[in-house]
Amino acid sequence: MTSPIGVTAILLAGARPIPDPLARAAGVAVKPLVPVAGQAMISYPARVLADHPAIARVVVLTQAPELFAADPQTAWIAEHPKILFETSGNGIASSLLALMDRADQTFPLLMTTADHVLLDAAMIDQFVDEAAGADIAVAMVERRTLLARYPQSRRTWLKFRDGWWSGANIFWFGSAKARPVIALWQDVEQDRKKGWKILAAFGPLALIGAVLRILTLRGGIARIGRRFGLEARLVAMHQAEACIDADKPDDVVLIEGILAGR
Protein backbone atom coordinates (compact mmCIF):
# COMPACT_ATOMS: atom_id res chain seq x y z
CA MET A 1 0.00 0.00 0.00
CA THR A 2 1.25 3.51 -0.80
CA SER A 3 1.51 5.86 2.17
CA PRO A 4 -0.95 8.78 2.00
CA ILE A 5 0.56 12.22 1.61
CA GLY A 6 -0.66 15.12 3.73
CA VAL A 7 -0.68 13.56 7.19
CA THR A 8 -0.69 15.97 10.13
CA ALA A 9 1.61 14.72 12.90
CA ILE A 10 0.77 15.70 16.46
CA LEU A 11 3.73 15.62 18.82
CA LEU A 12 2.73 15.62 22.49
CA ALA A 13 5.20 17.66 24.53
CA GLY A 14 3.21 18.60 27.60
CA ALA A 15 4.02 18.38 31.28
CA ARG A 16 2.08 16.50 33.94
CA PRO A 17 0.97 18.30 37.12
CA ILE A 18 3.49 16.29 39.16
CA PRO A 19 7.14 17.21 38.41
CA ASP A 20 8.79 14.60 36.20
CA PRO A 21 11.72 12.77 37.86
CA LEU A 22 13.82 12.80 34.68
CA ALA A 23 13.32 16.55 34.22
CA ARG A 24 14.12 17.22 37.86
CA ALA A 25 17.31 15.13 37.71
CA ALA A 26 18.41 16.87 34.49
CA GLY A 27 17.63 20.34 35.83
CA VAL A 28 15.24 21.24 32.99
CA ALA A 29 11.73 22.66 33.16
CA VAL A 30 9.89 19.89 31.31
CA LYS A 31 10.60 16.28 30.33
CA PRO A 32 10.84 16.88 26.53
CA LEU A 33 13.93 19.03 27.20
CA VAL A 34 15.77 16.22 29.04
CA PRO A 35 19.03 15.52 27.17
CA VAL A 36 19.45 12.10 25.57
CA ALA A 37 22.82 11.44 23.93
CA GLY A 38 23.53 15.16 23.93
CA GLN A 39 20.22 16.38 22.49
CA ALA A 40 16.88 17.34 23.98
CA MET A 41 14.72 14.24 23.62
CA ILE A 42 12.01 16.04 21.64
CA SER A 43 14.52 16.84 18.91
CA TYR A 44 14.65 13.21 17.77
CA PRO A 45 10.97 12.59 16.93
CA ALA A 46 10.49 16.19 15.79
CA ARG A 47 13.22 15.87 13.18
CA VAL A 48 12.07 12.45 11.95
CA LEU A 49 8.48 13.67 11.57
CA ALA A 50 9.46 16.92 9.86
CA ASP A 51 11.72 15.08 7.39
CA HIS A 52 9.20 12.37 6.43
CA PRO A 53 7.59 12.89 3.00
CA ALA A 54 4.13 11.68 4.14
CA ILE A 55 3.98 14.31 6.91
CA ALA A 56 2.63 17.66 5.71
CA ARG A 57 3.05 19.45 9.02
CA VAL A 58 3.92 18.79 12.64
CA VAL A 59 1.86 20.28 15.47
CA VAL A 60 3.63 20.34 18.82
CA LEU A 61 1.10 20.36 21.67
CA THR A 62 2.49 21.80 24.88
CA GLN A 63 1.46 24.07 27.75
CA ALA A 64 4.58 26.23 27.38
CA PRO A 65 5.74 26.74 23.75
CA GLU A 66 8.07 29.51 24.88
CA LEU A 67 10.32 27.02 26.70
CA PHE A 68 11.24 25.33 23.42
CA ALA A 69 11.79 28.56 21.53
CA ALA A 70 14.10 29.83 24.27
CA ASP A 71 16.23 26.68 24.60
CA PRO A 72 19.22 26.64 22.19
CA GLN A 73 18.80 22.91 21.59
CA THR A 74 15.18 23.19 20.50
CA ALA A 75 15.01 26.68 18.98
CA TRP A 76 15.26 25.06 15.55
CA ILE A 77 11.87 23.39 16.15
CA ALA A 78 10.18 26.75 16.66
CA GLU A 79 11.82 28.08 13.48
CA HIS A 80 11.12 25.07 11.23
CA PRO A 81 8.64 25.94 8.43
CA LYS A 82 6.88 22.57 8.70
CA ILE A 83 6.40 22.72 12.52
CA LEU A 84 4.02 24.85 14.53
CA PHE A 85 3.23 25.02 18.23
CA GLU A 86 -0.24 24.88 19.74
CA THR A 87 -0.90 25.56 23.40
CA SER A 88 -2.51 22.47 24.89
CA GLY A 89 -5.43 22.47 27.30
CA ASN A 90 -6.02 20.55 30.51
CA GLY A 91 -5.73 17.12 28.93
CA ILE A 92 -4.58 15.33 25.80
CA ALA A 93 -8.09 14.40 24.68
CA SER A 94 -9.52 17.89 25.08
CA SER A 95 -6.56 19.39 23.22
CA LEU A 96 -6.94 16.85 20.44
CA LEU A 97 -10.67 17.54 20.11
CA ALA A 98 -10.02 21.28 19.92
CA LEU A 99 -7.48 20.69 17.16
CA MET A 100 -9.83 18.40 15.24
CA ASP A 101 -12.64 20.97 15.43
CA ARG A 102 -10.60 23.71 13.79
CA ALA A 103 -11.82 24.68 10.33
CA ASP A 104 -8.34 24.38 8.82
CA GLN A 105 -7.66 20.89 10.19
CA THR A 106 -7.81 17.94 7.82
CA PHE A 107 -7.39 14.21 8.32
CA PRO A 108 -5.54 11.92 8.76
CA LEU A 109 -3.74 12.66 12.03
CA LEU A 110 -0.78 10.72 13.41
CA MET A 111 -0.05 11.28 17.09
CA THR A 112 3.09 10.39 19.02
CA THR A 113 5.05 11.60 22.03
CA ALA A 114 8.14 13.68 22.64
CA ASP A 115 9.81 10.82 24.52
CA HIS A 116 9.63 8.53 21.45
CA VAL A 117 13.34 9.12 20.90
CA LEU A 118 13.86 6.01 18.74
CA LEU A 119 11.11 6.84 16.26
CA ASP A 120 12.46 6.51 12.73
CA ALA A 121 11.28 6.74 9.13
CA ALA A 122 10.81 2.97 8.82
CA MET A 123 8.38 2.97 11.76
CA ILE A 124 6.40 5.81 10.20
CA ASP A 125 6.37 4.02 6.84
CA GLN A 126 4.96 0.83 8.35
CA PHE A 127 2.45 2.55 10.59
CA VAL A 128 1.07 4.90 7.94
CA ASP A 129 0.87 2.12 5.34
CA GLU A 130 -1.03 -0.24 7.66
CA ALA A 131 -3.21 2.43 9.32
CA ALA A 132 -4.30 4.08 6.05
CA GLY A 133 -8.05 3.71 5.56
CA ALA A 134 -8.83 3.11 9.23
CA ASP A 135 -10.71 5.60 11.38
CA ILE A 136 -8.51 4.75 14.38
CA ALA A 137 -5.33 2.70 14.60
CA VAL A 138 -2.91 1.99 17.42
CA ALA A 139 0.67 0.75 17.23
CA MET A 140 1.71 -2.10 19.52
CA VAL A 141 4.73 -4.39 19.91
CA GLU A 142 4.41 -8.07 20.78
CA ARG A 143 6.64 -9.22 23.64
CA ARG A 144 8.65 -11.72 21.58
CA THR A 145 9.60 -8.94 19.15
CA LEU A 146 11.04 -6.82 21.95
CA LEU A 147 12.71 -9.52 24.04
CA ALA A 148 14.43 -11.03 21.02
CA ARG A 149 16.41 -7.81 20.68
CA TYR A 150 16.36 -6.28 24.16
CA PRO A 151 15.74 -8.91 26.86
CA GLN A 152 16.73 -6.42 29.56
CA SER A 153 13.96 -3.97 28.66
CA ARG A 154 10.99 -3.89 31.01
CA ARG A 155 7.57 -2.92 29.70
CA THR A 156 3.95 -3.10 30.79
CA TRP A 157 2.28 -5.98 28.93
CA LEU A 158 -1.34 -6.72 28.04
CA LYS A 159 -2.03 -10.43 27.63
CA PHE A 160 -4.36 -11.65 24.88
CA ARG A 161 -4.82 -14.90 23.03
CA ASP A 162 -2.44 -13.75 20.30
CA GLY A 163 0.37 -12.73 22.64
CA TRP A 164 1.55 -10.14 25.14
CA TRP A 165 1.45 -6.58 23.84
CA SER A 166 2.95 -3.22 24.80
CA GLY A 167 1.99 0.18 23.44
CA ALA A 168 4.23 1.97 20.96
CA ASN A 169 2.85 5.49 21.53
CA ILE A 170 1.80 5.97 17.91
CA PHE A 171 -1.87 6.59 17.15
CA TRP A 172 -3.90 7.24 14.01
CA PHE A 173 -7.09 9.24 13.62
CA GLY A 174 -8.19 8.80 10.04
CA SER A 175 -11.52 10.61 10.05
CA ALA A 176 -13.99 12.57 12.17
CA LYS A 177 -15.55 9.22 13.14
CA ALA A 178 -12.80 9.00 15.77
CA ARG A 179 -14.29 11.93 17.68
CA PRO A 180 -16.70 9.96 19.95
CA VAL A 181 -13.88 7.69 21.10
CA ILE A 182 -11.68 10.69 21.93
CA ALA A 183 -14.61 12.31 23.76
CA LEU A 184 -14.88 9.14 25.85
CA TRP A 185 -11.16 9.40 26.56
CA GLN A 186 -11.78 12.99 27.68
CA ASP A 187 -14.33 11.74 30.20
CA VAL A 188 -11.72 9.40 31.66
CA GLU A 189 -9.20 12.24 31.95
CA GLN A 190 -11.71 14.50 33.67
CA ASP A 191 -13.20 11.97 36.09
CA ARG A 192 -11.42 8.66 36.58
CA LYS A 193 -14.19 7.57 38.96
CA LYS A 194 -16.33 7.05 35.86
CA GLY A 195 -14.10 4.14 34.89
CA TRP A 196 -16.85 1.54 35.15
CA LYS A 197 -19.03 3.59 32.80
CA ILE A 198 -16.18 3.77 30.31
CA LEU A 199 -15.68 0.02 30.43
CA ALA A 200 -19.40 -0.53 29.99
CA ALA A 201 -19.36 1.60 26.85
CA PHE A 202 -17.10 -0.93 25.14
CA GLY A 203 -19.64 -3.69 25.73
CA PRO A 204 -19.68 -6.73 28.01
CA LEU A 205 -18.34 -9.15 25.39
CA ALA A 206 -15.20 -7.09 24.82
CA LEU A 207 -14.63 -6.71 28.55
CA ILE A 208 -15.24 -10.37 29.39
CA GLY A 209 -13.15 -11.45 26.41
CA ALA A 210 -10.21 -9.39 27.62
CA VAL A 211 -10.49 -10.65 31.19
CA LEU A 212 -10.75 -14.30 30.15
CA ARG A 213 -8.06 -13.95 27.45
CA ILE A 214 -10.39 -15.33 24.80
CA LEU A 215 -9.91 -12.44 22.40
CA THR A 216 -6.99 -11.68 20.17
CA LEU A 217 -5.88 -8.06 20.53
CA ARG A 218 -6.39 -7.49 16.82
CA GLY A 219 -9.93 -8.88 16.98
CA GLY A 220 -10.72 -7.01 20.19
CA ILE A 221 -9.71 -3.67 18.72
CA ALA A 222 -11.77 -4.33 15.59
CA ARG A 223 -14.79 -5.30 17.72
CA ILE A 224 -14.54 -2.14 19.81
CA GLY A 225 -14.37 -0.14 16.59
CA ARG A 226 -17.57 -1.72 15.35
CA ARG A 227 -19.19 -0.82 18.66
CA PHE A 228 -18.58 2.82 17.76
CA GLY A 229 -19.42 2.43 14.09
CA LEU A 230 -15.89 2.85 12.84
CA GLU A 231 -12.93 0.84 11.64
CA ALA A 232 -10.32 0.37 14.35
CA ARG A 233 -7.07 -1.38 13.58
CA LEU A 234 -4.01 -2.77 15.35
CA VAL A 235 -0.63 -2.15 13.75
CA ALA A 236 1.83 -4.75 15.05
CA MET A 237 5.16 -2.98 14.73
CA HIS A 238 8.08 -4.89 13.24
CA GLN A 239 10.76 -2.97 15.15
CA ALA A 240 11.32 -3.71 18.83
CA GLU A 241 12.47 -0.12 19.34
CA ALA A 242 8.95 1.14 18.64
CA CYS A 243 7.87 0.49 22.24
CA ILE A 244 11.01 1.80 23.98
CA ASP A 245 10.37 5.34 25.18
CA ALA A 246 12.45 7.55 27.46
CA ASP A 247 10.36 7.18 30.58
CA LYS A 248 12.88 6.08 33.24
CA PRO A 249 16.65 6.42 33.75
CA ASP A 250 17.13 2.79 32.64
CA ASP A 251 15.26 3.59 29.43
CA VAL A 252 17.57 6.52 28.71
CA VAL A 253 20.66 4.32 29.19
CA LEU A 254 19.23 1.71 26.81
CA ILE A 255 18.20 4.33 24.25
CA GLU A 256 21.63 5.99 24.30
CA GLY A 257 23.22 2.60 23.67
CA ILE A 258 20.91 2.01 20.70
CA LEU A 259 21.59 5.48 19.28
CA ALA A 260 25.33 4.91 19.61
CA GLY A 261 25.00 1.78 17.49
CA ARG A 262 23.00 3.42 14.70
Automatic annotation (TrEMBL):
GO terms for molecular function: nucleotidyltransferase activity. SUPFAM superfamilies: Nucleotide-diphospho-sugar transferases. The chain crosses the membrane at residues 196-217. Keywords: Magnesium, Membrane, Transmembrane, Transmembrane helix. The keyword Transmembrane helix applies. It comes from the Bacteria. Residues 30-145 form the MobA-like NTP transferase domain. This is 4-diphosphocytidyl-2C-methyl-D-erythritol synthase. It comes from Sphingobium ummariense RL-3.
